[in-house]
Amino acid sequence: MLKLLRLSKTENLLLQRLKPVQCIVGQPCNVHTLQGTLVESAGIYTINTVEKLTKHKKAERTLWIGLQLSLVRTFQRGLSDWASDSDTEDEMAENRFCCDYAKRGQASCKKCKQKIEKGVFRIAKVVTNPFSDEGGDMKQWYHPACIFETFQRARATTKIIEKIEDIEGHEVIKDEEKEILEKLIKDLDSKLSPAKKKAMKQAKIDFTNLKTPEKKDATNGNIKHADDDDEKPSTSGYSGASFSSKEAEKDNSFRQFRCLCAEIAEEASYNGKTAIVHKFITKGSSGDGFAGSLYLIMKLLLPGFVKRVYNINNKQLIKLYSQAFGEDQDEMSDHFDQGGDVADTIKEFFEKSTKLPPQKKSTLSLQEVDAFLDELTLYTREEDQQRALTKIAKKCTANDLKMVVRLVKHDLRINAGAKHILDGLDEHAYPAFQASRNLKDVVDRVMANKAENGRKPGMSKKLSIKASLMTPVLPMLAEACKSVASAMKKCPNGMYAEIKYDGERVQVHKQGDKFHYYSRSLKPVLPHKVSHFKDFIPKAFEGGNDLILDSEVLLIDTNTSKPLPFGSLGVHKKAAFKDANVCLFVFDCLHYNGENLMNRPIKERRKFLRDNMKEIPNRIMFSEMKFINKAEDLKKEMMKVFKEGLEGLVLKDINSIYEPGKRHWLKVKKDYLNEGAMADTADLVVLGAYYGSGNKGGLMSVFLMGCWDPKRQKWCTVTKCGNGMDDKKLDQLQKELDMVKIGKNQAKVPDWLDVKKAVVPDFVCADPKKSQVWEITGAEFSKAEVHTAAGISIRFPRVTKFRDDKGWREATNLDELKHLFKTSKETSDLGESSLMGGKSPVKNTPKKRKHEDDDDDDDDDDNSNNHYGNPSPTKQIMLTPSKTSPAKRNNDVTPTKKLKTSDDGNNKPSCKYGAECYQTNPQHLEQFSHPSNRKIKSPIKSKILLDIFKGLKFSLSNSVEKLKDLKRYIIAYDGDVVPEYDSSQATHVVVGKNEKVENPASNVVSEDWVWGCVKERKLLPVKDC
C-alpha cells in the first residue's frame, strides 16, 4: 500500500482530497482520474503519466498545465519509512495540535472569530502554510471549547484530540485547564455516534496494516521488499559478491555500527583503530565479506568531517528531551554540568522515562539514522526539532539514542580522526579526501580501483589529488617559526615572504556565474562579507570561467590602502568605518578552467596568478609578497612588519606544492620568537569559571580572567582562558579555587562584577580580592566588545605562570591594561638575538609603574608587546621594581623587560636595576649595560639579596599575619616553605604571636623573628625571637 504525500503548496490543493491507493511496481496505477505506471529505479519510485487532463476543475487544470500536462511524482524517502511507521494516529491524517497561553492577545479564534485575550489558554491546529513557497507550518488558534465543537463534524479519518497527550507541549498545561480539557474530551466521546466511533477505529486498523511495497526480481521472479539492500558496487563491500538480505541487514544495522565504534574507542593505538575499520569493511560482521553500505559506514564514522548543521545545541537537546521524557529539565541540566556529556545525560534519563520508554531490542538501520539526520538539518524551530527527535527516540534503545545524540554533536568519542578511519579504506584515501572533501567520490574511486586491480598484491593504484569545484578544499597551513635561522634551514631554495594579513581566510569557488565562499573551517562565509565579490571577480579574472582561489578577506582603508584592525569585518563594526571597503587579497590559485594547479610549485602558481589576474584597487588585490634567500633580508622584513604593527609573515619555499591540510608553510609572529618571549602578557585575576566538555566534562576547565577598574570600583572581564594547564593542575584547581555556582544566570551575577550576558560564567569567585593571579600570555592585545575592560582582550590566551607571589593589588589594573594595549600597538621590542634564535634579552612583562603621588600598591606586571620602560616621545616614565616581588627578582635569570639602550654607545639595552643590579651571570652582564646614573627605588635597605635562609624549611601557621608576604620573602632569601601535610619535614615552624606549640619537633619561631632576619640581612639566633 502506497500513500501519496504532498510535494508543494499548489499540489496540496489537489492531493489533500486523494485517498491512499494501491500501486505495484510495473503495473498500471490509477490516482484519482490520473492514470500512469509506477516505475522503480535505484530505490526511487515514480508515477509517470502523459495524459492530458483537460476535464478537471479550473484550479486542478491550472495545476496540471503548470506541470506541463504531466505529473512526475518522485518519492525520495524509503517506502519502508511510510509503511512501517507504528504511529497510526500520525498516519491517519496530517493534523497536529499544540497549546500555550496567549502571549500578546492579538490572535483570533478560527471558529468564533473573537480575540483570544493575553494569558488565556488556547489550542492550535498545525496546518501547512499556504503562503510560503518553501512549505512549512502555521498555527490556527482556537478556544478549547471551539475546537472541540469542530471535532463533532469531523470525518472518521480526521485526527482529533482523544487524550491530553495528543497535544504537543501539554506539559505546560495548568491543572485547571487540564480539568476543562478532560471534561471536553469526555463530552465529545459521549456525543459521537456508535457508527462514527466504529469507522474511526476501522480507519486506524487499515493504516496499521499497511505493508512495504514489494517488487519482483527480474532475474528469478522472487518478491523483494523495497527496503532490501540493492547496493551499487561503488558503495558495497570489497568482494563484489552477492549477499543475502540477512547479511546486508546485519552489516547495515545501527547496533553493529555501535559495536564497531566501541571497539575503535577501546583500542589505544591509532594503527589498531585503522586495522579494526579495515577488518570490518572487508569481512563484515559475519566474517565472510562486508554486505552493507560502505559509503554510509564511512560517512557516519566521520561526523566531524562530513558535517551536517543541525541548528541545535546541548541545552536545547536537554530541554526538548526533558519534555519528551517527562523529566525535570533542571535535573537533566545539572547532570549534564556534572558529567559534561549530553549523550550520557539523555541516555540515563531515557532509561528511567515512563512517558517514552526505550525499546528493548535495537532494530534501527543505518539508512533510518541517516535519513533522520538529514531531516533534522531542515528544522530550525523547536516544535519541528522536538517532533523529529521524539520520533527517532521511539525506535531507539537507550544505547541507540546515546549514539544518535553523539552523531548530532559530531563527536563519537572514539578518539580517531579522519586519517585513521580512511586509512582503513585505502592508504591513499585520506590525502584524496583532504583535497576534495567529497567522501562519496573518494569511496567510489577506491572501489573502482579495487575492482580494476582485482585485489592483486602490489597492484594498488594511488588516488589522484584533485580539487572539486564548489566543494571546499582543506586549506594548507603553516607551522610556527621561531627564528630566522630556523626559516633559512627549512627553506634552503629560497622563499616567498608574504604578509600575514589579520583578516579572515576565504576560499573562493567560481563555476560559471555561481560563487561559493568557504572559511578556514570549510563553513560558508557570512554573505555580508563576500556577496559583493561576484561583481569584481569576473573583472579580475576575465578568462576564468571555473576557478578556486585561496585568499584573505579584510577591511581596507580606501584613503591609505592599509588594512584595518582584526575583527572589523563584523556587520556592525564595519559600519563604523566610513572610508573602507571589504577587499579580497588573493595569494594562491588551485584550479583554473578545469586545470588542477595544486601539484605545481608555488613559483609557477604565483606566475600563473600574475598572468591571469588583473588587480581592482581596494577590491581584488594581490597579497604582498617578496622573494628572499638571505638571512639578513628576512630579518629586515620581519623588523619592518612588526614595526608597522602587522601580524607577521608567512614563509613559503619556492618549490613547495599545495598540500591540503599539511603544515609545510612557516609563519612568523611576534609571540613565536624566542619561545614566546616577545608575546603580550598580563597578570589577571581569576573571576569565574566554565564547565568543560568531553574529557573535561564536569570540571572547571575554562576560566574568566579580569582586572580591577579603580575608577568604577568594579572588576572587568578581559578574556576566557583554558590553555596552559595539565590535567594534574586542573584537578588541583578544583580544590584551590573558592567558587560559587551561578549556572550562567545573569540575575545571579554579583554586583562587583561587570560582565556581559554572552560571557556570564557557570561559577564566580567568592571574593575576587582573595582569588588567584595568573600570568596570561597571548599573541597580542585585541579589541573584543564582548569584554568589559574597555573592550580590550587577548588573542590566543594561555596561562604561563601561576603568580602565588602576587595579590590582587599587584595584578594589572584597567588603567595599566590600557597603557599596555596602546604601547603594544606602537612599538615592537625585537632584538637581534630574538630574530636570529639566540637567548632573548627581554621578556615582555612590564613591571610596576609607580608615580610619586601614588600611595597604593597597584602594579602592572602584565602583558604587552611593550613595556613601561619604553619612554614615549612626550613623557619619561620611571620604572620601579615591585615591592612585593622579591621572589621574582631572585628567581628570574634575566630581567623581565627590555629598557632603553644605554648612552655609552654600545647599543646594549639598559638593565632596569642599573649599577645596583644583583645579577652576577656573565651572560646577563654581556647582554645588558648597567649605567650608574639610573635611580632605582628599592623596597629594602640593602641592595643585594642574600641566601640567609638557605637549607632551611619553614612550616607557616595560618595564624601568621601577612602570610603571603612572609612566604615570598622566605623564598626570596633562598628558603623553602613546606605544605601543611609535610610539616614534619620542616626545620622551623613559624607561629602567630599568641600561638603556642606543645612538644615541637622543630624550632618554633615567631613571625617577628623572620622579619628580623630579613631586616638585619642575617640569620638571628632562635633564642632572640
From TrEMBL:
Locations listed in the record: Nucleus
Cofactor(s) for this UniProt protein: Mg(2+)
Gene Ontology CC entries for this record: DNA ligase III-XRCC1 complex
PROSITE patterns reported for this sequence: BRCT (PS50172), DNA_LIGASE_A1 (PS00697), DNA_LIGASE_A2 (PS00333), DNA_LIGASE_A3 (PS50160), ZF_PARP_1 (PS00347), ZF_PARP_2 (PS50064)
Polar residues composition bias: residue spans: 865-894
ATP-dependent DNA ligase family profile domain: residues covered: 575-709
Pfam family, one: DNA_ligase_A_N
Reactions performed catalytically: ATP + (deoxyribonucleotide)n-3'-hydroxyl + 5'-phospho-(deoxyribonucleotide)m = (deoxyribonucleotide)n+m + AMP + diphosphate
InterPro entries (UniProt xref): APLF_PBZ, ATP-dep_DNA_ligase, BRCT_dom, BRCT_dom_sf, DNA_ligase_ATP-dep, DNA_ligase_ATP-dep_C, DNA_ligase_ATP-dep_cent, DNA_ligase_ATP-dep_CS
Keywords: ATP-binding, Cell cycle, Cell division, DNA damage, DNA recombination, DNA repair, DNA replication, Ligase, Magnesium, Metal-binding, Nucleotide-binding, Nucleus, Zinc, Zinc-finger
Lineage top rank: taxon: Eukaryota
EC number: 6.5.1.1
Acidic residues composition-biased segments: 853-863
Main location: nucleus
Residues covered by the PARP-type domain: 97-189
GO MF, one annotated term: ATP binding
Region Disordered, residue ranges: 210-244, 826-908
Segments forming domain BRCT: 944-1025
BP terms from Gene Ontology: cell division; DNA biosynthetic process; DNA recombination; double-strand break repair; lagging strand elongation
Broad class of enzyme this protein falls into: ligase
Low complexity bias locations: 234-244
Family: Belongs to the ATP-dependent DNA ligase family.
PANTHER family: DNA LIGASE 1/3 FAMILY MEMBER (PTHR45674), DNA LIGASE 3 (PTHR45674:SF9)
Designated name of the protein: DNA ligase
Source organism: Lingula anatina (Brachiopod)
Gene: LOC106161217
